Amino acid sequence: MTVIGFTRPLSRLDDAVKEARDMGFDVMAAPSLEILPGDDAEFEKFQSSLADGITVVFGSGTAAEECNKRFGESFPTMLQSCNVISIGPNTTKVLTSFGVRVDSVPADFSSYGLVDMLKGDVSGKKVVVVRSDSGSDVLSDGLKDAGAEVIDVASYKLKKAGMGNGLLHMFYSIKRKRMDCMAFTSPMSAQSFFDDIREFFGAEVADQYMRGNVKVAAIGRPTAMKLESMGRKPDIVPERTTFHDMLEAIKGAFE
Predict the structure, then answer these.
(1) What is the pLDDT of residues 53-78, one digit of tens each?
(2) What is the pLDDT of residue 138?
(3) Exposed, middle or buried: residue 12 (CB in 10 Å: 0-12, 13-18, 19+)?
(4) Rounded CA gap, 255 and 78, in Å?
(5) pTM for the structure as a whole
(6) CA 162, CA 150: separation in Å to the nearest integer?
(7) ∠ CA(11), CA(220), CA(218), 5° rounding?
(8) Do 216 and 234 contact (CB within 8 A), yes or no?
(9) 114: closest CA among 62, 156, 57?
């Protein structure tokens, strides 16, 4: 049985573990990031930016969930006259569960896919991007380069979960070559994991373990680029940027 490891926000960890086990993996997992609500000023900015025909991009399901928590039943009404864009199927599922109509989804479920889809139609226009306080700047920078006036709204904040027993178990499993693949689901989770394992073993030893003892998977291009910037090019990157597709890609690599 293929042994995989990953970190996920605590609120999503149990579902991710179940999905991986249902696909036949032996799973090691630990919380990576704690999700906190955005500041009041961010939600005020979001509300004041909405107007007829304005494009609103949701960069994650969590971004939508935090807006719904803040605005409640008025959330879908606020977006009725907006052009609502979702980064991918999970985010679309979350938005539609709140009664929000989603107008478009990119073919590539990533920030790059959103830029490719929107870049020909945003010059001179305002675009509201709802996201975390610490995600990649690929989307905002790409839209600005295409001539858009970008209004970034951090509807949630991410805080490192800390070095608990689950993370330590993964570190020692990698050291002892008892894990087949370590999977990363965001640039920030990759950065956090590498910071922690380097602190624990020392940078040189940790990098040696990550290069020689375990394969590495990245959920999409931004995460792959973050891993490359840290000196570890991923072995596995799925064509579609979802957790399920990453699991499928890992499964295929070990068959």
Answers:
(1) 999 999 999 999 999 999 999 999 99
(2) 87
(3) middle
(4) 48
(5) 0.82
(6) 33
(7) 75
(8) yes
(9) 57
Amino acid at 121: D
The residue type of 2 is: T
Angle at 185 between CA 61 and CA 194, to 5 degrees: 135
- What pLDDT, in 10s, does the model give residues 187-238? 889 999 999 999 999 999 999 999 999 999 999 888 999 999 999 999 999 9
Tracing tokens 């704690």 back to the chain, one arrives at 34
Cβ neighbours around 107 below 10 Å, total: 9
DSSP 42: H
What one-letter code names the amino acid at 32? Answer: S
DSSP code at position 59: -
d(CA 244, CA 24): 13
Structure tokens at 241: 């940027």
Q: Which 8-state DSSP code applies to residue 101?
A: P
Q: For the chain, what's the residue count?
A: 255
Contact 66, 156 (CB under 8 A): yes
Cα 157 to Cα 210: distance, rounded to the nearest angstrom: 28
Query: CA 114 to CA 106: how far, in whole Å?
Result: 6
Q: Between β-strands 126-132 and 3-8, what pairing exists: parallel, antiparallel or unpaired?
A: unpaired
